[in-house]
Each structure stands twice: as C-alpha cells, then as structure tokens.
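Section handout 9: paired folding examples.
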Amino acid sequence: MKRIVKTCFCAFIFFTFIWAFYCDRSYSIESIIDDDFISFSLVNEESAGEKDLFRVLSDISKQTGKDIIAESSFFKDGEKWHYYFKTSNEPEFINISTSKGTDLLEENECFTNAELSTVELTQHKLNTTADANIAIFPFEQLSEQGYVADNCLFYCKEKTSNELFASLEKCGFEVTSYTGTTYSHDENLFVELIFATLYLTSVILFTVSEAKKIVLMKMDGCSCVDIVADEIFAELRFAVCFIGSLIIATVLIVKVIIGYPLLSYIRETAALYKTAIYILILSVGLRLLITASINKHKYVKGAVPLRKLYVLSNLIKSLSLIGITVYCIYTINAHFLPAYYEYKASKKYLERFGNRVSIYQYGSIEQTIIDDQNKNLYPFYKDVCENHDAIYIDSSEYAMNSGTPEWKMAEQDKPRIDVNENYLDSSYIYDLEGNRINSDSLDPEAFNVLIPNSASEKDIEDAEAMRRAFGIERTNLMIYDAEDYELYSYRTNGIDADMGMMMPAPDIYVYDYHIFESVQWETSQILYGKLYIRTQTDDPEKELMPLIKKYDLEKTIDRVSSLNEQIEEYLRMKRDSVIYSSAGIVLATLVLIWASVFSSDSYCKNNSLRIAIEQVEGMSTMASMRNHLIMQTVIYVSYFVIALISTGLLHYDMRFPLILIAATIAVDFMITYVRCQKQAYKNLYQIIKGDK
C-alpha cells in the first residue's frame, strides 16, 4: 500500500510541474497585456484617418509619462503572429524579459522571439516560454505599417487611465473605454485536482490499512503527531530528491534553455504550485485525523477495519460520481459539442469556401472614401466575382456584447447578414415549397431580401427601410424555410459557434453589383475581411498582385490572408481543447472505476461468510448483495438529483446529461455486479470450512 501512496505522490507532483509549464506557454502571451490594463478606442474628427496621429499620441504619452500599447494578430507564411506596439516611458510597463535588459524601446529597435526578415530594425531577443511568434515594436511603427489611429484598439494601465484620457480629450480625441479586465487568468485546475484526489485517496486508505501499526505505536507512548512525523521523515529523503530534481529541471529549462526570468515564471504559475502545497498540507491533516481515530485494540491481532474502509470507499465514490458528472456535463457542453459542431461546420466551410483568401486595407473605411479609392474597388470587386468566384459575407451582427447578441441590443427580432450572389450559390437555402434559392432566384433590378418564415412584420419593415436608404425602387422579398437551410460563416463570433452554421435563421440582404456601385460605404466594407477570393496557387498574394496593380490598389490593400490557414489554426485550438478535456474525463473515470471496484471488494470481504452460505443455498448474486446494492442505489439517486440541479444551474440541454447519467450508472452497476460475483465465488470452499 505504501508503494501505491508513493506512486500517487510522484504522479501528482510530476504532473503539477508539467501542467504549470504547459499553462505558462499561453499565459506568456496574455501576460503582455494582463488584468491591470483597460482597453479604449480613439476618434479625432478634425483629422480622422491621418497616420501622423500616432506621433501626436506618442507625444501625449511622453508628456503625461503614461504608456500606451496596441496589439494585432494575423497570419504570415502559415504562422500566427502577435504584434504589439508600445510607447516607452515607464520601465516595466509590460511583463516581458529581453536581452536588452529593459522593456524600453528606441524608434529603431524591436523585441521578438523569432527572426523578422522584413523589418529594418535592431532586433533584441524576447525571452518567453510561449511557442507563438511575438514581436513588440515602437509605437511609431503603427503608422509605418499602415495602421490608422481611429481604427485601432489601445490599452493602458487602468490605474493611470483617467489622467491619460483627460490629456487625450484636451487634444481633441474622443475616448471610448471598455470596462472589465482585458484577460482572465483563472486556470482550470480540475486535472490537477484529479491527481490530487488519487493521492489523497491513497493516503486515506493507507492510513486505515496501517491500523495495527498505529495502535502498537500508541501503546508504546507515541502521539499521533509522532506517528505521522516518523512516516514523513522516513520518506523525506525520497520526496526531497524527487521534488528537487523537478525543480532543477524546471530551472534549467526556464532559465538556461529558454532564458525566461524565474521570478516571472513563478509569479505566472503560482496558482498551480500553491494548490499543490495546499493538497500536501491537507494530506498530512487527513493522516493525523485518521490516525487519531484508530484506537481499537482488536487491530493489534491483525484485524483490518474493513467496515471503515467500506464507508470511506463509498464516500470517495460518491464524491467521484458528483465531480466527474459536473465536470463531464460542463466539458461536453462547453468543449466537446461545440468542437464537434465547429469541426463539422469547418469541414463544410472548407469544402464550399476553401482555397480562398481575404483582403485587408490600410487604415479605415473613412480613409478609403477620402482617398476616392472606391472608383477602383468596384471594378476590382466585379472582376474577382466574375473570374475568381469571390463571395462576400458580413455576419458582424452575430457578435456578442457583454453576453448579449448585437441584434438583441439593437432591439431587432432577427439577426441580419449581408451576402452577394456567389454566396447563395455556395449555400443551401430552400423556400417553403422545397425549392433551392440561389443566384438564379434573384431579381437584378430589385433589392433582394431572404427572410425566414419565423420573421416578424418588423423584419419586413427593416428591409424596406434599407431599400429606401439604398435608393432602390422595389424589394424582391423571398421567404425561406427556417428549419431547412445551411448558412455558414467564418467567425460569426459565437452564437452557435465561432465558426460554423448561423443560428438562429437570419434575415439575408443580398448586395448585388448595383448596390456596391452606388453605395460608397458598403463598397469599402469588402476590405475588412468580408470578401473571400478563390485562388489557384500556393502563393495567393503573388497570384492576386497583378490584379491589385491593374486597379491601382497597392496603396489601399494592406495584405492578403489565407482563409485555410486561419481555419487550420482555429481547428488546432479546438483539437487541443478536446485532448485536454478527454484527458480529464479519462482520469476522472479511472478514479470512479477504482472507487467502484474497491467499494465492492470491501463489502464482499466484510460479509464473505454470509455471502458464501447464501450462494450455497442457491440465492442469487443480486439477493446476496442486496445491502450493498441498496447503498449504491441511494448514491445513484443522490447523484442523479445533483447532476440535474447542476445542469439546470448551467443552463445546458438536458438530453446529453441524462444520457451521461444513465451511461455512468449502467457502467458503474456492471462493475459493481461483476466484482461482487467474482468475490462471492472466490475461495468459496475455504470460506465454508471456516477459513477467511
């Protein structure tokens, strides 16, 4: 039994160190802009869109002594990059370590953990445990890279925000701040707690099994503290060597190999290590408590307190059932089902919209209109639609704001999406007679609107208002079946999924050629990642560059981004989430199976003679195990009630939890029955003779 305790202890401590390093790889990116920051956006009506506003912002930052940072993420050569742009007034403004020894940047410097071949700046190494590509630039580089101030999201320290915002407003900026923390670092400790449960369970059962030794030591005058202390000191050398080797390995990896500051690493992973320390303290407390409760002299004769072990095993089993159920209900609804649906949706999305790229512009929509680029954008759009099967979709109303869908905040009955004719040919939408609606169903002289049969009169009124705004004489209104449709979007921002089928059924406004030709604002929208152009080569930017030059859009289009790469990155994230969740469920299931087996074995050993006699008399296994099965039934009923309450509190669909509950009870009952039957027939002849 002592070997089991040591094995569980090693597994718990080893996993804590490994899990801490794993969590820190993502934390190292998030900690650049952490909970101390507040986000805000800026508008300057007098000089909207001017790139030199970054210089003005930099000057304001220097005058106030308060730093500003902006961030951007995008794909480059198939890899995701995280770009940060910061002013350099306050040392340790952000939580980073660099080969320069400071986080302050000159205008000709940058920090990065990867090589930037396209940037003519002095590059200093960014020390981080993160495996993602990160680059930190001087604030002035925002204008060099084509950004515009009124199209950026900025961050500053929350405690200094009031002073900074006041200075910005004095200089003519309209500041909009966003409440709430930027990131949340609430680590999911459940997997660590599974190993902790295994360790604590082994400590409890080991202490009970040592009843004879404990009573003898008490008879020799030892106190409970002496008994536990002797056991700890006997294994202290092993524990110190094991933990010490893990500490040395961690220091070598973090400090020597990666070059990351140990203090930063300790601060970022402190929650996990503190939990481990608390568990170790709890194990000592449990050992003392159980040791104090073992006082019966019959244990000296070798009797093992099986009844106490049986009660303990049932208690552990009950807690395991509740824990695994709550965790599984949450995991299935929050991870498995979304990942499953998103995976299916992404596959369909790739089938229909794969091998495409989206385009992004320099600056803002206003700047595009000011520069009179729409005269070039429209023929470009028409060309890529006709020759590159370009699809347009704007599903921005599916965004969530403080947990509420945007269309709900605008008091609309239904969300709305904007698409072009090509998109309809790639989707499957049917009218009430079962006929498919596609580009052939459109009226080229009207404003085409598809409304689900669940729509209200207000939806029709909104469509008419939009028709009048576009200056179109009439509306071609088509009703589609809200139960029989397939509409997919990339990054709908999460009503049903971040990427996938759009639910509920939206109102669909079809933007024909003449809408883009006549409405400048809508024409500029195609440069915000809403137009997906089909390409044929492995270098889509090179493939599209002749077309971009043909319409004189080199100064308007910033970059070409592969949709496939974005989706693959998204799927990798989901795959990691599923693997992590699966590991947690498997480990929790092992605890449950072990508890079920131990509980059944304990009962059979406690009642071996009675069970053997009843078996000889022809009684069934179910009948001879009736007391144990009644106990399990009580546990199952309690477990069922708690599971349903948990499901209701989490507002999850009841179907999957009910299936999970039924499956858990069936599997656990099968394990219980098989073990009881095996123990009942084990050594039956010897038991009848009087041997136990």
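Moving on to protein 2 of 2.
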Amino acid sequence: MGFFDFLKPDVSAEDLYREAEQCFKSKDYATAVKLFEQAWDKDPDVGDFLSLSACYYYEWGTSKNETRCHELAFHGALKGNAQSMNNLAFFINTGYGCTMDKPKARKWFEKAAEKGNRDAKFTLACILHADAKDDPTLLDRCYRLMKECADNGRKEAQENMDKWFGPVTEDEWKGLTTVGMANRGYNWMVGKEGFEKNEVLAMRCLKAAAARGNAAAYCNIGWLLDQKGKHGEANEAYFKSANLGNTTAMINLARSLHNGWGWPKDDNGSRRYLQMAHEAGDKRAMMRMAEFFPADEVQRLSAGMTASEVYARACDVANGTNGQTRNAALAEHWYGRAAAMGVVAALYGQGVVLDEQNRFADAFNAYLDGARRGNTDCMYVVGTRYAEGKGCTRDEDKANEWLLKAVEAGDQRAVDKIYELNPNIERDRKVQFMLDNMRLCVEENFSSEEYDVEAMVRQLINDEEYEMARKLTKRCLLEVEDDSDELDCLEDMQIYLAYIYYEDGDGNDELDCPFYRLRQAHPLIVDLSQDFVPYWADTYMWLATLYHELYYNYEDAEVNTFSRHRDSEWYGRQAYKYNKLAAEEGYYMAMYRTARFLIDGDVVDADYDEAYSWLQKCEGYCDDLPLYWLGNMHYYPEYGRENNVLARKYYEAYKEKYEEKGYNKNIITDVYAQTLTNLAHLLLRQESSICDSRARDMLKKVVESSFDLADALYGYVLYEGKGGMKDRTGGLQYMRKAADRGDLMARQFLRNYGYSV
C-alpha cells in the first residue's frame, strides 16, 4: 500500500468489476485478472465472471487454472449466462477441472441451447447424431439443430448437413433391409412410431429404398412431390412404382392423367392404369373408375337393363335409396342414359342433380331439352329460369311463353308464376273491363270491386301509371258529361284527373311543363264545392298540393291568365284549408306547410303557438326543414320563444341532417346558409375558442358562396381574431360592405369600433 493509500475511499465490487471488464476489452489481461479477483473477494454475485474464466482457460494474463476455470463457469451458469452454461457443459463432458460426467454435461448443453447458445446447439446436434445410431427418432432434432447452425453460416455445420443428410451411407444401412428403410422413410413422412414428421429425412430414406427397387418408396416419393406441387416429378415416381406393381401408384398416376396434372391429360392412359390396379385386386380402382369416368361406368352397369330400370336406378342414385349411395354427379349420367333410351322425365331429374352441383347452365339445357320434348315440369322450370336469368339470359317474353305452355299442359304452378311475374295482368284486365263497360259501372255506382272505377284510378295513380289512370278517368267523366248527378263521386274523379294532369300532363310530351300541367288541372278544381268531403283522406293532400302550387306559382306560372282564375289570396286560403285537413290526417308535408302559413301570416292570421305545434309533429321529415324553422322560432325574438340553447339544438340538427344527405359541398342553399349564419352567431356568444373556430369556418363557407347574409358577422370575427388570426383590414371590408346594404348589425359593429357609418 502506498503512503497515502489509506486516505483513498473503499472501492465497491461493482466498480472493480466494471473496471476489470474494461481492461479485458482493451486486452490488459493481467490487470483485468487482478481486478476481477478483488471484485470476487468483495462480492461474487457482482457478475458472471465469464471473462475471468476465459483468462484462466487461455492463460491470458495468468497461468492456466483448470479448477478455477470450472468454478467460474459454474458460477456464471448459475447466474444464467448461456456461454458459461456451454463452457461448463464442455468442462464436465471432458473432465476439465472437474470429474467427467457426460449425462450431467448433456443437461447443461440443453440449458445453454434453450438460452439460444449456438455452440451448445452445434454440440447437441453432434451428440444426437451419434446417439441416433441406436435411436433413429433422435435424428430429427439433430437435423433441425444442425440446419439452424448451418443457416447461421457455421462452416462445420454446413459440412455436416451435406455429410449427414445427403444420401444414406453404407454404415446407416447396417442392420436395415430395403423394406425397413422404406418404412423408416414412411414414418418420417407421416410422423408415426415415435418419429417426428420430417419430409427431408423422409425423402432421404425413401430415395435410398427406391434406389434398391422398392415400389412403395417410389410411390411415397411421388406423394411427397405431389404435396409440393411438383406433379411432373411425382408422376415419374408413380410411373416407376406402378411398373414395379404398386397399385396405389397406379391409382395416383391415373388421377394425374385424368386431371392433367404434371403430364398432358390422357383419359385412355388413366383408364389403363385403373384397369391394371383392378386386375391386381385393388378394390379402389373401380371406385375411381366410377368417379373419373362415370359415363363409362353407367354404360357398363346399364348393359342389359330396360329404360325404366335405368330411370329407376338414376332416381335411387340421386336420392340415396334402395341401397344406392347418394351421388349427384353419378346420377347425372344415369339420367342422361335414361333420356337417351327415351325417358323424357329423366331430363328433369338430370336438371335437378346438375343444379345441385351448381352447374346452372348445363341444368338449363337439360330442362330446355325436356321442355321441347313435352315434359310439363321442364316447361315450368324453363319459364322460371328465363324469368330469373339463372343459367341463361333473362328474357321475360320467353319466360311467359314457356309458362303459358305449362299452363296449357295443366300445371297450376305456372298460373301462379305468371301472376307473380306479371302482377298487373289482373289489374289491366279489370281496367279494360271498366273501359268497355263504363255505363254499367256508373249505373252500379261503383258498388263492387269489379265496377269500382274510383278505387282503380287511385291505385293507378299510386302506382304512377298515369297514362292508364288518365284514360280511365276521362272515360268515366265523359260517360256522365250529360248528367253529372249520375255519379256521387264526380268531384273526386275531377280531382283525380287534376292531380294526374299536375303529375303527368295530358299525355302531350311536347307541352309537358309546369305551366301547362297547372293550366290543365286548374278548371277541374277551381269550382270545387265548399262542402266537399272526399271519400279518401289523402285526397285532401292532393288538393293541398294543387292549391299550394297555384298559390306559390301565381306569378311564375301566370295563373292569373287561366280561365276563371281567382286572386292569389284565394288560392292561398284554399291551400291552407286543405293543407290543414291533410295535416290532421297525418301528412307531414301538410303539417309543415300549415305551420309556414301560420308563421308567414299572409293568408291567415299568424299563430306562432299553433305553428310551433305543427312543426314539432313533423320534426325530422320534409327534408328536415321543420328543424330549421324550429331553430328560427327560438332564435328570432319576434316569435316569442327566444331560447339560445334550443335554437342551437335545432340548427345543429338541421345542419347535421343536411350534410348527411351528401349534398354537393360546393352548392349552398339559402336555408343552409341562414342556418350556418345563425348558428355561428349563437356559437360566438359562448365565448369559447372551440366554438369561435367552428363559427369562423361556418361563416367563411357562407361568404365564399353566393350569399352575403354572413358578411357582418364574418367581418367581426376577422376584426377580433375570433377562432383564428386577426385580419382587421379584411374584417373592416366585410363590415362596410354589409353596412352599405343597410345591415344594422354591421353598422353597430362599425360604431362600436369608432368608424363612421
């Protein structure tokens, strides 16, 4: 110890160990050994001391010390160091610094390998290879460990892979027959008798057995190659095996030839190999013959059978009856054979089993053949298939043609199907009867379904069959032209014709425009009696729509030029009257229109409470416009319901619904623009940065459109920097523009900021 060493603080085991590792890395081994030993004296648990063990083993900075080397390796192994475990296993396996104990060494090699130590894996693979001579099942793990080492670039491992897992050596043949080697390959192939499934080892053994002429080995080689998609090579193996008498190879080769796998499709060759297998006593051969060549099998089995017997067998195979196994593919050929022998019904059966195989085009052809040969069931199916376009091109005319033939043949199903495919047949028949017998219908006063012209007209209108409805209505009105008292529902019929004109005009496409259609409808409703009560409730809605159009299009459609026109307010009063009646019947659009009349106060006295009630009832309908007006009634003070929370709620709901419908984002309606403006105003009152940002975005959208109603507010948010950067110049421009148009809000803003107005 130096003179002043007693003044130095005590050095910890950790610091000593850390400094020792640094000296070891810089190859100052003598100092490293000294420091490691000092650290060990203070606290052995400070590290695994793998580097110190290496120094004693390789005599780096110290003399060789086998006992100390083993002791340190054992310590490192207990600390969990994989390399220490491998070193300890090596020492115990060779008796280096300790007593030799190979079983114990094996355990430490296993532990090191589990920790991922590649040296341990290589050593284990070598041990397993030696042990595999007595227990071949160990060879699989040997192969996997050695291959991992080889894949990681270890040259010795690569050499061992070539040496150990190449062709079987003569030493490995000792004690094994050719059959034994083939069986070992089979066990590797399928993983039996304690062998892990391993195709590499399987192929190694099978090739060795095949080289000595083992037929089963060739066959199994073919199977392994088939699994990898190497069908051509597989066929070569099957071919060699088949020539050595293996029936499985014969059947497998027949399958490949039938399917065209690896070699060109060759059904004659396939039949030849199946026949060879059959003659060799393999019962599977005939099963495959029936599977691959069902037509041949049916031809063979049906020899000497009558047509009815063949048809009966077809039904049994199709249904799995009378001892036959159910087989749609085979039944197809039995039915085909029966059809060829003159049993027309067999074509229907053939179509059914083809359908079962999802071969719809083939099935249709079978049905069509049967239909042409007079089978009623086939006629019906052909008609339905043409209607569906299933297995053929959809053709309604051909569908009806074949269904009518089925009806003529007595098939009641075809009658029902015709009505299903042509739901208007019965309706059109009734309409024609009414047209031909209108005098009788009027005299019967529409007393029954057969004579009820009014009900039929309404049905046609609801089906939008306006041409037929117009024809029937005009024929009825013409019938009672000379005596209107003959028809109790005369006014109803006039309203129906008016509504037809409104929706579709009078059939003159050249004059099909709103003005023309309203002019046609006008005289039919303008003189409607004040005490008119329709038979059908929705007639109110039709009248409401007609009067509503006449009122709101009074100038645009030049209603004031119509014969017997009234003033605008008269049409408005009529529109309000019938809208309210329709609203009371539950029609949402009528509710909305009624509310608007009560809000506007132009035709009837304003009544905001009643309007609000109607708007609530139709909330969520009528393109969501009621939501907008509910928002207005809570936003504007003049409606007496000012409530910012509810106004915002309804405006938000309208905005969401409008945007959900996917309207073109570049097109903004006046209602949507007003909604955004009012909603932005409400959001700005919240004094929230998030609300300010939303408001700014909404106002920007409006000012960038064709509407200027948001200019004042947008100028304000720019000037104040609400929801974004301040822009006093731009804000002032927008506010002045709005003020010039007389916008009171803009003028107030300008005064507040000290600008002249």
